[in-house]
Task: structure prediction
Amino acid sequence: MNRKSSIENQSGIMLAISLAATLLFTACSNNEKEMNKAEITPANSLEYATTPVQYINPEYTLSVPGELKPYEQGAIYAKVTGFVKELYVDRGDRVRKGQLLALLEAPEMNQKYLSDKSAEDKVYSDYLFAKQAYDRLLEASATVGAVAAIEVDRAKSAMESAKSAYESSKAETAQTSQLQKYLRITAPFDGVITDRNVSVGALTGANTGLPIFMMAQGSRLRLTLALPEKHAASVREEMPATFTVSSQPGKVFDAKLSRTSGLLNQQNRALTLEFDVDNVLDALQGGEYAQVQLKLQRKQPSYWVNNKSVLYAQSGTFVMTLNNEEIKRIPVKEGIRLDTLTEVFGELSSQDNILEKPSEEIKLGKISR
Result:
């Protein structure tokens, strides 16, 4: 009886082992079939995530460095050679347009003027005498036979010659008189004297190469900056801007576009922009660097895609479209890049669906299901 029970127990154990082995083999076969099925599944039959291309015209902000310059600035030279007689201003003085800044003296110029004036008076007397002689002969010629016609012509020629000599002498005297006015150095515009290079008694003039004063206009400034080429088409008239300067952290200043260069600089491929800035309260200083925030916008809408939708390959830059179960690769050129969007230019339409995650391994053409 015990022998029979032992045999039955052994048979049960063998049956259980056999059943477990069968189940394990079946599971392995199913897994292998699933793996083989996944391996032979065409890649193009997968579901691709797409987003529609955006045809929009967003306003965006660009930060670029700029420089504040005086609206007007220049070096003030003496037009004639002379000695500095008086200096009426110094560095830091604020002056008005036309204000007398310095006085020069040139004794030889005064003598030249007196000589030219004396010569002018003599030539003028000669002209008056010749004119009177002509007028008398002309009056006498009214009587037939009293004066020969050639004498009248000779008197007229002498009068006209004397008149020409007088006009020439008069112009020379005016020139000398004008040169005397150049001895007075006046301010060409409202501004501040930024430098003084001569002292009283010094010889100065056009040939010395040294300006008497340097001056600049501080009540009005020019904010200039170089806008990169890709943003040049986004500039519009009276475009607003804000800027900050390092000398006044946290303070924001406003400005509007006043003018542009119109053409790109050939050296840095940038468009020069100028903003006029009122500085009546002297809150800013000419020569400061500024960080400018521009609000730009294209003149017309353009196509935009997600940043990750742009495919960079050795053959170029592309986006991939999925329309009507067909995948295409479209060559594009990048424009502006915002936070999550990139502007692209290529053969796109507003109905295109763009692959969110393009790859060079994705096969082009119809998707096989």
Observations:
- The chain has three domains: 50-57+301-366, 62-71+218-297, 75-186.
- The chain is about 30% helix and 35% strand.
- The CA atoms of residues 133 and 155 lie 7 Å apart.
